[in-house]
Specification:
alpha/beta; single chain; 4-stranded antiparallel β-sheet; binds adenosine-5'-triphosphate; 6-stranded mixed β-sheet; transport
């Protein structure tokens, strides 16, 4: 690749949203969102409760069908593709509320996710044998600092450990673009730094593209390359953290509200 081609490739967004919108019974929840996210970039989404952040993530990940506009991944229009088709193309997400099985152990969660990622031919019997995924599971548990909790049921984990397990379940599928919906929600103040460090290492060390909804400004300012501000379902601003904080439109919109 020539230097010029490399520059163009780096500038080409891996994920593009054009005029993306979602309405419920004619009421717009997400409206006219257009932006591009570059490979390896970290974009944090902020905005008050009800601004449409989770709804936007639902449109990107395919959980909700867009009413208007398009979602383009690696230059391919995936607007009509379902969740699994998008996941197969490298899009993974976590949810605001916990999606774990209380009675299943940490290792069982990750092993089952590895099996699911391997596709329909990996059978339940294969899962029971466990051996094919042992190394993969061990690696992911090591990376997410959960190796010592491998045999612990999810119900016995702290909130921070549950969030780590959700990340482990996601990472074993090897997604290139990761959507994290409030990964610090419900996590104690003592556990936030370790979880923040883990998210940072997923971005920097594993080189993943990350989109994250986060209310804690102190957390996202140390992580995000750019900050996207959602307001009443629209994308009000998308810029570097400093520029967004200094943006008078953003300040006006949030007058009297905590960002
Ligand atoms: N399935 C639905 N049907 C009708 N309205 C919905 C639906 N899902 C979300 N909404 C509404 O859309 C708006 C945006 O919700 P959304 O959860 O996307 O906001 P958010 O920015 O993620 O908020 P929070 O920070 O509280 O998670 C809210 O007013 C919500 O009540």
């Amino acid at each position: 690749m020539t230097a010029a081609a490399a520059t163009t490739a780096a500038a080409t967004p891996v994920l593009r949203l054009d005029d993306l919108g979602w309405s419920v019974r004619g009421v717009p929840i997400v409206h006219g969102v257009s932006c591009g996210v570059r490979e390896g970039e970290f974009v944090a989404f902020i905005g008050p409760n009800g601004a449409g952040k989770t709804s936007l993530f639902n449109l990107i990940s395919g959980i909700r069908p867009a009413t208007t506009g398009t979602v383009t991944l690696d230059g391919t229009d995936l607007t009509r593709a379902g969740v699994h088709a998008r996941a197969r193309r490298g899009l993974g997400r976590t949810f605001q509320t916990s999606s774990l099985w209380p009675g299943m152990t940490v290792a069982e969660h990750v092993r089952l996710a590895a099996q699911a990622a391997a596709g329909p031919r990996a059978s339940y019997r294969l899962w029971r044998r466990a051996a094919p995924y042992r190394q993969e599971v061990a690696d992911v548990l090591e990376r997410t600092e959960l190796a010592h909790r491998a045999d612990t049921p999810a119900a016995a984990l702290s909130h921070g450990e549950k969030r780590k397990l959700e990340l482990a379940v996601l990472l074993v599928g090897d997604p290139r673009i990761i959507l994290l919906d409030e990964p610090m929600a419900g996590v104690s103040a003592e556990e936030v730094p370790a979880l923040t460090a883990l998210v940072r290492s997923v971005h920097r060390d594993l080189g993943r593209t990350v989109l994250m909804v986060e209310h804690h400004m102190d957390v996202l300012l140390g992580l995000a390359d750019r900050v996207a501000v959602m307001h009443h379902g629209t994308l009000l601003a998308l810029d570097t953290p400093d520029a967004v904080m200094a943006d008078p439109t953003v300040q006006d919109a949030y007058l009297g509200e905590e960002l």
